[in-house]
Design goal:
Number of strands: 11
Shape: globular
Oligomer: single chain
Helix content: under 10%
Structural class: mainly beta
Length: 128
Amino acid sequence: QLQLVESGGGLVQPGGSLRLSCAASGFSLDAYGIGWFRQAPGKERESVSCISSSGSSADYVDSVKGRFTISRDNAKNTVHLQMNSLKPEDTAVYYCAAIEYTYYNAFYCLNGGGMDIWGKGTLVTVSS
């Protein structure tokens, strides 16, 4: 069973911070590139951030650049998304997804494609 489980979502005030986690089971994340995606009500799913299997390359969409940081701890089979300076427009269900490193492509990941294994999501609500 290949599984990704997101955690860390919740309610936060504008300007606040949250740290999301994505834990893998049934496979080793060190051989997978990972992306974080989100879907807000009434909007299409969009890519947020992507990281290579080794963690040496991390990429972000413009809307979160400078505010979000993606990282991974392969020894713990976990990927994180640190979200700072949160805005109401960041409100969404956040998903992590994985693809084996030989097929990982940052450009495809940032454009929402190429991921094989998906978590069920965690809800982030940014509101006063």
